[in-house]
Design goal:
Distance between the termini: 48 Å
Order of helices and strands: HHEEHHEEHH
Largest sheet: 2 strands, antiparallel
Helix content: 25-40%
Number of helices: 6
Radius of gyration: 19 Å
Strand order of the largest sheet: 1-2
Structural class: mainly alpha
Length: about 150
């Protein structure tokens, strides 16, 4: 059985420009970040569409939760011939602390590139803030736990 990272690394994603074209988006509506990521600038449209909102899901014993369920649902609708676009929120730092999954889904229901997703997509300034807060939390936790990392307190 392949691990999540092995599955992610074996994936050959379609270029985001092709995805945008298949969704009927114009070049003015996407801001490319390489071949596989983009930010969207979409104006409201008059065409009819439906929204399915997955707001809360208890994870399975294997850790699958909202992301995996949402990706699986989008994949299923696409397989049924529907035009599908999935939007997910930015992941929390739970994966970094080892208290939840990888924030990119799991198994064959995951987003790629996984590392970019978990590192806050496009190098936004928020990633620097999060890294600083993570380091501060690790130091604080080590000191609270009788300093197993042997951090010099001076």
């Amino acid at each position: 059985m392949l691990s999540d990272i092995e599955i992610a690394n074996a994936a050959r994603p379609d270029k985001i420009s092709n995805v945008a074209k298949n969704l009927g988006l114009s070049e003015d509506e996407i801001e490319l970040y390489g071949h596989y990521k983009a930010k969207l600038n979409i104006k409201p449209r008059s065409r009819a569409s439906k929204l399915i909102l997955v707001t809360a899901t208890n994870p399975t014993p294997f850790g699958e939760g909202k992301t995996t369920t949402s990706i699986g649902l989008a994949d299923a609708l696409k397989r049924l011939g529907k035009s599908v676009c999935l939007a997910l929120r930015e992941p929390s730092l739970g994966p970094v602390f080892g208290i939840k999954g990888g924030a990119a889904g799991g198994g064959y229901s995951q987003l790629v590139p996984m590392d970019d997703l978990n590192l806050h997509f496009n190098g936004d300034f928020h990633a620097i803030t999060s890294a600083n807060n993570l380091i501060s939390a690790v130091i604080d936790n080590s000191l609270y736990q009788e300093n197993p990392l042997k951090i010099d307190k001076i």
